[in-house]
């Protein structure tokens, strides 16, 4: 199931993409009018905590809408909605993995990817949506960079999760662009400020449930800047797999429903080019991941 969050006329909602249509089912409107279920979460993060029971609830709501006398009244055309991040606000900072691809580590000046997990975070206020115009933050940085990544969305609270059970705690996946102010990163000698400027963590367009992506270690990740391919990698080249990341992080931090983990970026970032090619006002960045879609953001 491909789930998206959106706003329409001041009304914030979410729902699955309508099959073969450029539209979304407004499941909150369905529940409100048809009263299909005894109760239904009005927050997508609260719903995710129910695991695949949440997916089944959504399916029942859609089935009820399809059987109703006016199914079209519960559909929202993509052209009329304001897209939101599939997870509008994470419970804690977004957890990010650095140098998880060997070739990216090398382009950043390392001899090889680090032997141990390299972790940093981005503020939840950095979250942005598909289609959202993002500030280039010219008053703070002249070296804004892109990083296309697969993002994990946690679906169940867990601590000290065994690697062989890690997928039980994953709800699904989305696309992230870990936009980075390289000069702030260098100036402050740590990652948080350079990674957390407003709008520098666009997520989307969809949250795709894990059943639609049976092997997250075999996905292509392509990033284009103004339609020029800059990154063309595969998650099979990750040094630490999805299940390893979930397991290792849970040894140190209690994972919660709605938590987002960025899994690292393949080679081809602007800083790694010769000469470096940083983002500028007017640029459009598209990150595509097989099975999820394309995340598009314009920079001004």
TrEMBL record:
Superkingdom to which the source organism belongs: Bacteria
Record key words, sorted: Metal-binding
Gene3D superfamilies named in the record: Fumarylacetoacetase-like, C-terminal domain
Record has Repeat as a keyword: no
UniProt name for this protein: Fumarylacetoacetase-like C-terminal domain-containing protein
Signal peptide region: none
Family to which this protein belongs: Belongs to the FAH family.
Domain Fumarylacetoacetase-like C-terminal: 94-299
Pfam (any one): FAA_hydrolase
């Amino acid at each position: 199931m491909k789930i998206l969050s959106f706003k329409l006329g001041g009304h914030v909602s979410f729902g699955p993409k309508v099959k073969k249509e450029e539209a979304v089912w407004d499941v909150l409107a369905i529940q409100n009018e048809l009263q299909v279920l005894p109760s239904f979460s009005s927050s997508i993060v609260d719903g995710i905590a129910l695991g695949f029971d949440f997916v089944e609830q959504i399916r029942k709501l859609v089935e009820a809408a399809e059987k109703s006398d006016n199914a079209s009244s519960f559909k929202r055309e993509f052209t009329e909605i304001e897209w939101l991040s599939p997870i509008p606000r994470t419970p804690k900072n977004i957890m990010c993995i650095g140098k998880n691809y060997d070739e990216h580590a090398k382009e950043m000046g390392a001899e090889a990817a680090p032997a141990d997990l390299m972790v940093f975070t981005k503020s939840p206020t950095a979250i942005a949506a598909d289609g959202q115009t993002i500030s280039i933050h010219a008053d703070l940085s002249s070296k804004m960079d892109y990083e296309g990544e697969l993002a994990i969305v946690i679906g169940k609270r867990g601590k000290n999760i065994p690697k062989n059970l890690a997928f039980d705690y994953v709800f699904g996946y989305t696309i992230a662009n870990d936009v980075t102010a390289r000069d702030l990163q260098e100036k402050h000698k740590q990652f948080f400020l350079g990674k957390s400027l407003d709008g520098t963590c666009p997520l989307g367009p969809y949250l795709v449930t894990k059943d639609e992506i049976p092997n997250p270690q075999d996905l292509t990740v392509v990033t284009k800047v103004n339609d020029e391919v800059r990154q063309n990698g595969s998650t099979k080249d990750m040094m630490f797999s999805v299940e390893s990341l979930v397991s290792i992080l849970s040894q140190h931090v209690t994972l919660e429903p709605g938590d987002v983990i960025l899994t690292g970026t393949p080679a081809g970032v602007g800083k790694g080019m010769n000469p470096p090619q940083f983002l500028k006002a007017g640029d459009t960045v598209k990150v595509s991941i097989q099975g999820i879609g394309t995340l598009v953001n314009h920079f001004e």
